[in-house]
Amino acid sequence: HGVPVVMDCTHSLQQPNQTSGVTGGNPQLIETIAKAAIATGCHGLFIETHPNPAAAKSDGANMLRLNLLEPLLEKLVRLKAAVS
Fold it and tell me: Does residue 38 lie in a domain region?
C-alpha cells in the first residue's frame, strides 16, 4: 500500500541456462511487458539497453537495442496518459 512498484522489463525475460552458464532472453517481448506494467499502474520501468546487445559484456540476450528506446518511451508515455 503506497509503495512504488518498478517493473524490470529486461531481467524478467531472462532465460537461465544451467548447461552453458549463458542466459538467453526474449527482447522482442520488452515492449509487451512494459505496456502491461504501465497499464496496471507500475510507477517505473527498468529497461537495460545497449547500442549493440550482441556485443554487451553481460545480459545482451535480453537487452533492448538503444535506438529502440526512444520510440518505446514515446508509446509508453501515450499509454500512461490514456490510462491515467
Answer: yes
Smallest CA-to-CA distance from 10 within 43, 55, 53, 40 is with 53
The tally of domains found in the chain comes to 1
Rounded Cα–Cα distance for residues 26 and 61 (Å)? 7
Task: Determine, yes or no, domain membership for 58.
Answer: yes
pLDDT tens-place values along the chain, 84 residues long: 689 999 999 989 888 776 776 777 889 999 999 999 999 999 999 999 999 999 999 888 899 999 999 999 999 999 999 998
Domain with 48, as residue range(s), is 6-83
Flag whether 1 is in a domain: no
Residues 55-77: b if buried by 16+ CB within 10 A, e if exposed? eeeeebbbbbeeeeeeebeeebe
